[in-house]
Design a protein that fits this description.
alpha/beta; globular; 26% strand; binds adenosine-5'-diphosphate; ATP binding; 2 domains; single chain; ATP-binding; binds magnesium ion; 6-stranded mixed β-sheet; 9 helices; 238 residues; 4-stranded antiparallel β-sheet
């Protein structure tokens, strides 16, 4: 297996709108890939198709060579796909540590849970804040907690929808280093991003989605040098 994830001619329509149009896409096992494209390009919808929150009208999704096109979301999680969405899904009235307990308790041997959470807290730079209410964290820290809740499941593939949205430049950079470390440990990552400095920091390969289709693919240097890509952001290509 070289491709951990593959979509074949994936289609999704909402009413008359073709939100995902014949998307052929493949992720190499172990790569760190960024998905970019203007608002409304279909990036979040593509994630929801991979996660099983939407079912496609046609086409196929393969994960580790298994057809998961019709699999339920929990089956995909069990097979090793995890996600961090743009809007944090943390419990604000619980402590940082309790949030991680809730996320991990059904996935980790209870005898190892405390140790596992200590390790995660350290990785997330949140050890000092573990007793704080999650609602009192800074915006960036909330995003890290959410990343922790997603990686606590030890996924093979982690999807991140705009992981640095609203972060300060320092938080953004720290997030990039975190993701690079996860990738170095063997996790495959696919991130939707708008911040091109961040894409440059982390991505080994970039795919541009436009009007639900793969518009361009390549290294960050190839993508930023492509005049066709610049034009879609100016609304000059459709
Ligand atoms: P992106 O994440 O790239 O900004 P989205 O995948 O959120 O794009 O949306 C792509 C298009 O699909 C948009 O035009 C959006 O309005 C439409 N869309 C997304 N989800 C739905 C839905 N559940 N029902 C109807 N239209 C939707
Ligand atoms: Mg989106």
């Amino acid at each position: 297996m070289t491709h951990i994830l593959e979509t074949r001619q994936l289609n999704k329509r909402f009413g008359g709108l073709h939100v995902t149009g014949n998307v052929d896409f493949a992720l190499d096992a172990g790569e760190m890939h960024c998905l970019i494209g203007p608002n409304g390009a279909g990036k979040s919808t593509f994630f929801r198709l991979i996660l099983g929150e939407h079912l496609p009208d046609s086409g196929q999704i393969l994960f580790q060579d298994q057809d998961i096109t019709r699999a339920k979301p929990f089956q995909r999680i069990r097979q090793g796909i995890s996600v961090k969405f743009q809007v944090p899904g943390i419990f604000k009235e619980l402590s940082v540590r309790q949030n991680l307990v809730i996320a991990l308790q059904h996935h980790v041997d209870p005898r190892l849970l405390a140790e596992e959470i200590d390790r995660l807290l350290e990785f997330l730079n949140l050890s000092h804040a573990q007793a704080q209410l999650a609602g009192n964290l800074s915006h960036g820290q909330k995003q890290w907690l959410e990343i922790g809740m997603a990686i606590g499941l030890k996924p093979r593939l982690l999807l991140l929808d705009e992981p640095t949205a609203g972060m300060t430049p320092d938080e953004t950079h720290a997030t990039g280093e975190m993701l690079k470390q996860l990738n170095a440990e063997g996790m495959t990552l696919l991130a939707v991003e708008h911040d091109m400095a961040f894409v440059r920091q982390i991505a080994q390969r970039v795919t541009v989605l436009h009007l639900g289709k793969v518009f361009a693919q390549g290294s960050i240097d190839q993508i930023t040098a492509d005049p066709r890509v610049a034009k879609i952001y100016l609304g000059e290509v459709d």
